[in-house]
């Protein structure tokens, strides 16, 4: 009998709880160790078999990748044991410290060994947000109907109050046969199948000629229109004829490049091709004419791609057809440094008086060898060598494994030659213990985003010179950073205080706004058109502060408008990442309609650009000084002391493998808020979180909650629980970076009841369904991870991330969060 696993996993690095039950539980919550009793379930009421599964995963079934990358259903047979019969590894409630190894049985009978965290990760992937096993659909096989329940065709429409004929919205009486990823099949309700893959189900309905049935008619046409849009976008990416950029015609092939140069009476594209072919030459081994490819090598295709850079220079890149290769998944994934780590880097540099030097590795992938055995036949761009066999010997752009091969090659230089260590909290942050001329201890850091480097040190040039010994770093790129990942970077030294770094999206948005104006002009639309609404204001992102996207009933967008809307939201999302915290809420709520936006949503997205066009001079400042906050230290000590008595076992999990702290310490401050039942349709609340290190904003979070809370108290506590997870993760990252942390994190919320329940030990919870959030937050207080403070709503900076505020309130909060450039 298949075991069902209920998994509740907090943000890493947190506790993982597993509760096992033999059969699916329906409408009987008494079987579940729910709420505040979750991690203190009465194990004496659970029989030995349940206890064994709870502790050891034994007999659990989990989908795992097979040798060829396909997903198969495996069974946990037991703990791996050493020669003396003792179990390998030790259990720990903290996943960081859990070292257990289990043996998994695959369908072909072989036994493989996996670490417990790998098993937990895969269990989590196949579970829904409540922890129940959520099968992953591979394909739909058949559809059947129960005539006694299903709505007949003659009753499939009705007339609304306006006399308009509408389709009945129903899925009753219909079931779909599903083939799951584990190769099993079953019949599920049409309602559930439609939520899993509406497009695939619509295509099956058409194939079986049931699309006109009432259960399908009301939604299949819409799903198929979405398919048509995707195909249209795909075609537009493939057909390159007439493609221009910055008004310059861009070729699609070598022959087109030659024709364009001949028509323009220049050799700009051919010069770019020649430059690229010279740079890429090291990646190839050209065999003698008539030689056959080496045995065991696979043939691929290679081609040129073209682009125009911001300075109008032509760019050519020789790339491989990586889609023609079959590479294992473990050879394709390559990480990059996270954006919050980059912000921490700028802050730590200012805090410890370190300099920053940026550099861009030229033809980065080509510096690394490749493990793929591939060849191709030289094309027109090879001139006299056309049709000769070319063996690829380096990580050519376009190959699936190139990014990882380059990363491993760079890691070998940073680790073996320069003596840096990869941070376990962010593997693309490298650190090294150093001592300056005055005897002060600190850490040097190197941040890697593919081929972009940021070196943070007292003398970063010494490390850059060592890197240049193994890689070609573009000379013009070696300087203090002024641009990084699309953001404008500058160092402020004339503020009368300690120098600090700032980040802004000004240049990125200037270009985006210019392109948007040109696009609207082509479509015959006005960018600066004012609306007749008396509440209209250009001083806020939405046209009015009362606008609610979920209540928008305007017409659905055309295919071209959908594409434009998706492009605009993509730009706005990146602008938020680059520091435009003030539009975080608006971008979050508009992003819910990417699949099927209305013209009203498109209008609001365009208006957000108008708002950004007006309010340009905003930056994020990574100031190292402490904020000017009045804190009651006696109250802080009381919170931790008395809460510790209520939760005597609560401790902060400190990673045993963290480097010794060096440099000046950082303090953490977090503002938390929620807009209770802010979504007028689903009545879900919006969470807003703003996390500071000293006076530098590092993380901002605006997201709709996954549950519907019946009170402001509940929604605020959910937000506070999410903030607690972010705090624990950030404290872990800082420790693994070797950055000292001073005291607990100070959390500010504006709800009196939440403040008292999370800071006063003898307060009791009245709403049991909020017990997980309640106890999680209070345990963090007891462990000294955080303390909670009450703040007035007008001073709660995270309020800007939960709702669309009136212009005067928004202006005040923006001035407190963002740095106005002089």
TrEMBL record:
InterPro entries in the record: RVT_2 (IPR013103)
Name under which the protein is recorded: Pol protein
Organism: Chaetoceros tenuissimus
Domain Reverse transcriptase Ty1/copia-type, residue spans: 305-515
Superkingdom of origin organism: Eukaryota
Cross-referenced Pfam families: RVT_2 (PF07727)
Bilayer-crossing regions: none
């Amino acid at each position: 009998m298949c075991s069902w696993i209920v998994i509740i996993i907090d943000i890493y690095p947190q506790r993982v709880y597993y509760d096992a039950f033999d059969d699916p539980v329906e409408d009987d919550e008494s079987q579940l160790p729910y709420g505040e009793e979750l991690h203190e379930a009465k194990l004496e009421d659970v029989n030995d078999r349940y206890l064994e599964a709870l502790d050891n995963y034994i007999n659990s079934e989990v989908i795992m990748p097979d040798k060829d990358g396909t997903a198969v259903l495996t069974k946990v047979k037991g703990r791996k044991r050493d020669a003396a019969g003792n179990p390998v590894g030790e259990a720990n409630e903290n996943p960081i410290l859990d070292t257990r190894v289990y043996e998994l049985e695959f369908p072909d009978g072989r036994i493989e060994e996996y670490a417990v965290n790998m098993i937990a990760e895969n269990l989590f992937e196949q579970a829904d947000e409540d922890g129940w096993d959520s099968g992953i659909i591979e394909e739909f096989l058949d559809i059947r109907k129960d005539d006694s329940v299903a709505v007949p065709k003659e009753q499939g429409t009705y007339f609304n109050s306006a006399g308009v004929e509408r389709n009945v919205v129903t899925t009753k009486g219909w079931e779909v046969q599903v083939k799951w990823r584990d190769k099993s099949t079953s019949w599920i309700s049409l309602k559930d199948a439609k939520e899993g893959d509406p497009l695939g189900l619509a295509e099956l309905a058409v194939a079986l000629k049931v699309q006109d049935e009432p259960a399908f008619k009301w939604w299949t046409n819409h799903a198929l229109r979405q398919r048509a849009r995707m195909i249209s976008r795909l075609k537009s990416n493939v057909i390159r004829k007439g493609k221009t950029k910055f008004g310059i015609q861009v070729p699609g092939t070598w022959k087109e490049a030659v024709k364009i140069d001949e028509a323009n009476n220049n050799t700009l594209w051919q010069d770019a091709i020649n430059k690229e072919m010279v740079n890429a030459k090291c990646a190839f081994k050209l065999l003698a004419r008539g030689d056959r490819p080496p045995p065991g090598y696979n043939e691929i295709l290679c081609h040129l791609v073209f682009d125009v850079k911001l300075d109008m220079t032509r760019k050519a890149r020789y790339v491989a057809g990586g889609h023609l290769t079959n590479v294992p998944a473990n050879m394709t994934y390559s990480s990059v440094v996270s954006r919050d780590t980059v912000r921490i880097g700028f802050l730590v540099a200012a805090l410890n008086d370190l300099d920053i030097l940026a550099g861009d590795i030229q033809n980065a992938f080509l510096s690394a060898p490749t493990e793929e055995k591939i060849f191709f036949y030289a094309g027109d761009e090879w001139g006299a060598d056309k049709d000769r066999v070319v063996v690829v010997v380096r990580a050519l752009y376009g190959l699936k494994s190139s990014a990882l091969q380059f990363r491993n090659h760079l890691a070998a230089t940073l680790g073996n030659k320069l003596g840096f260590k990869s941070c376990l909290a962010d593997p693309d942050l490298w650190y090294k213990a150093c001592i300056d001329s005055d005897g002060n201890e600190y850490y040097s850091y190197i941040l890697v985003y593919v081929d972009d480097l940021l070196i943070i040190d007292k003398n970063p040039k010494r490390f850059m010179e060592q890197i240049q010994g193994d890689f070609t770093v573009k000379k013009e790129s070696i300087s203090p950073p002024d641009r990084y990942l699309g953001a404008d970077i500058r160092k402020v030294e004339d503020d009368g205080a300690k120098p600090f770094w700032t980040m802004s999206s000004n240049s990125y948005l200037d270009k985006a706004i210019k392109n948007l104006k040109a696009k609207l002009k082509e479509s015959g639309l006005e960018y600066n058109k004012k609306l007749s609404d008396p509440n209209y204001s250009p001083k806020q992102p939405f046209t009015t502060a009362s606008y609610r996207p979920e209540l928008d009933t305007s017409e659905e967008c055309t295919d071209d408008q959908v594409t434009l809307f998706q492009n605009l939201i993509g730009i706005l999302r990146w602008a938020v990442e680059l520091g435009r915290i003030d539009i975080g809420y608006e971008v979050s709520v508009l992003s819910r309609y990417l699949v099927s936006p209305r013209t009203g949503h498109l209008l609001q997205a365009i208006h957000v650009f108008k708002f950004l066009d007006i309010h340009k001079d905003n930056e994020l400042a990574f100031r190292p000084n402490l904020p000017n906050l009045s804190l009651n230290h006696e109250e802080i000590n009381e919170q931790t002391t008395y809460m510790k008595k209520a939760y005597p076992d609560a401790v902060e999990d400190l990673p045993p493998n963290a480097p010794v702290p060096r440099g000046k310490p950082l303090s953490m401050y977090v503002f938390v808020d929620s807009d209770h039942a802010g979504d007028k349709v689903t009545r879900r609340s919006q969470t807003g979180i703003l996390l500071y290190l000293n006076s530098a904003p590092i993380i901002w979070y605006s997201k709709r909650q996954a549950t519907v809370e019946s009170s402001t108290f509940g929604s605020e506590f959910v937000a506070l629980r999410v903030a607690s997870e972010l705090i624990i993760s950030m404290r872990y990252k800082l420790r693994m970076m070797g950055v000292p942390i001073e005291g607990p994190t100070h959390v500010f919320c504006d709800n009196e009841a939440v403040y008292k329940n999370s800071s006063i030990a003898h307060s009791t919870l009245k709403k049991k369904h909020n017990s997980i959030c309640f106890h999680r937050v209070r345990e963090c207080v007891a462990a000294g991870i955080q303390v909670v403070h009450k703040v007035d709503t007008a001073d709660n900076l995270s309020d800007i991330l939960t709702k669309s505020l009136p212009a005067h309130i928004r202006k005040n909060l923006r001035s407190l969060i963002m740095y106005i450039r002089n």
